[in-house]
What we know:
360 residues, alpha+beta, Thrombin, subunit H, 2 domains, six-stranded antiparallel barrel, 8 helices, 13 strands
Amino acid sequence: xxxxxxxxxxxxxxxxxxxxxxxxxxxxxxxxxxxxxxxxxxxxxxxxxxxxxxxxxxxxxxxxxxxxxxxxxxxxxxxxxxxxxxxxxxxxxxxxxxxxxxxxxxxxxxxxxxxxxxxxxxxxxxxxxxxxxxxxxxxxxxxxxxxxxxxxxxxxxxxxxxxxxxxxxxxxxxxxxxxxxxxxxxxxxxxxxxxxxxxxxxxxxxxxxxxxxxxxxxxxxxxxxxxxxxxxxxxxxxxxxxxxxxxxxxxxxxxxxxxxxxxxxxxxxxxxxxxxxxxxxxxxxxxxxxxxxxxxxxxxxxxxxxxxxxxxxxxxxxxxxxxxxxxxxxxxxxxxxxxxxxxxxxxxxxxxxxxxxxxx
Length: 360
């Protein structure tokens, strides 16, 4: 029955129905809202597949351009940046624009097809990572064009933010922050530095659990915050600490939606301006309860950022002893931030928020 229904939709969208059959099918669409919704989703899917094919074709062209550039580098007749820029600047700009549109078009279609929440989040994380790779690749090409010599690679890059989960050395950050790392270091504003390793990852929710490895580590002091187990309300005042640059930065705003990117119920939307280095930072309510983990922001929309809800972080923590041989995470039970002014809360909080440095 499902097969026949999709066959009818294919013929209708392709314009292959005779007039009587088309009229009957359109009349059925007026009365059967479920069929009309499926037809809409099927049309979206076909359009998405077509966009994906165009995107793959553009990627092939970019690879061909890169190969051509390397071939021309062997000739000393004309500087490589003049040849490449003259021939391909306009094409690269068009390719970049279409690639970005294709990525966000795919994200939109995933939501329209109403797949399970976990699958939506997995696609969002994967596509966001692929988009970042495209941006980095194109930025590298432009830098290579405008510079005759390449700078020496830095030994480490400030990738994001993490914060303590328990006094015995567990932390959390966004999984895309530490992806592909050979080694990881953390450091707070007091100068405390520790080598850590990733011990567990939840790629669906973009969360990673880290553990301090230093032999001399005696433990963090008592954590001043607790983890909220219930959902926060729309309009609540919220704030975060993170490392969008070398110094720690405070950001404050409100909870603007109880769902995240394209209706993702595992996340909040918040009205705090964020930068990439904020990923993995804590999100707290006005009383100092930890309610989420900063995950990213919506491109092209200033002030629209997202955080994974604390309920999913707590679920990940509960799975940790079952999935590994590590000791359980002893979560803090007392909130000492409540009742304090914001500056006082930040003084207590900042020693437990770390910059995450990734070494490759």
